[in-house]
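ok so for the tutorial part 2 we go from a plain amino acid sequence to predicted structure tokens. step 1 is just haveing the sequence, like this:
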Amino acid sequence: MISIIKKRHTTGGLLPERDSMWPLISSYKHSKMNNYTPYLFLALIVSFSACSEPETSNPEIKLVQEAVYASGFVEAKKQVELRAQADGILIRQEVQEGELVQAGQLLFLISGKALDSRLTAAQTAFSIAQKNASDQSPVIQELESALEISKTQYQNDSLRYQRFSRLFEQRATSQAQYESVKTAYESSRLAWKLSQYQLASKQDQVKKELQAARRDLLSLSDELDFYEVKSDREGIFFQSEKEVGELVRPGEILGTMGSMEGFIGNLKIDEQDIGRIKLGQKVLFEMDAFPKQQFKGELIKIYAKVDPTDQMLRVDAALLDELPAPFTGLALEANILIREKEDALIIPSNYLLPGDSVQVYQSGEIKKIRVRPGIRTLSEVEILEGLTSKSQLIKP
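step 2 — the prediction. this is what the tokens look like for a chain of 396 residues:
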């Protein structure tokens, strides 16, 4: 497993320390040997003990990968925060943490008593309007009956008027009788036309009333959706932020869920590394939650805005390996791999001292020497100058 590169800032150099035996030896150069013989023997014993060869190790030559360091956290693909859109009391939570949910499934129910009463009234109005606009509508049937009566009356008066018109031409009836029949005919014709108009007008009215009632009901139904929080996708419900009985306000987070398509690393990199990254680069992840495991990924999104508060740029990397458990929010460190370097001289990172120096055992002495480090990882450092593969390193 390749260690994740950890970004560090180097400190100023330190001069090599003098040999630890020097103060002890120099103190005896100015002493009188004949007066301090017992102490001299004790000092020599200490000196021989200190000069015993220390435990050492050699640098290794192996593959190292150059990478951009990133840190962040794990989140599900298409992860969203479910927010309240209405005031009310959370009266039901229909899903538990870690549960799989389906698209359209009810997740939370918020109390909306005032809306409930308005919705009931709208449903009643819609039901009445629907009935009035149907073929069995009492209002329409009454007007249709009146139309039929006026039509019959008109037909009868029309026949009678035709008969009296012929009689009047033959001078077989009086002017008064003819005028009376004619008036009755014109009156029934107008009554029939009026019945037709009233029926058509009423039919148009009940249709408009039905449309208006339907709009009101749909509007309230849409408003009701604000109180019924449903999932718009298949996914995993990760966490609830509210308890049943709590007051919720519009915009407050009720819970978090994401898709079942996998996870991404929500990462941040230093703005100085922006020019070194590109889409499709391989990414290596390490997480404290799963120690001694490494996960592969791929850079899938580079955002266009640097956060002015920390001068960091967000990037997203898809996890290609499956996580041992579907947790979101896990802290992670990552390498966005830039290039690989074979046959690099590598030492453990904890051997590198401040000022880019190391302790070595050389010519029977412990020395501190300066080195020039190259690529760094969490546990290793490449050494470009100052050491060879045969150097004897001493662990600080």
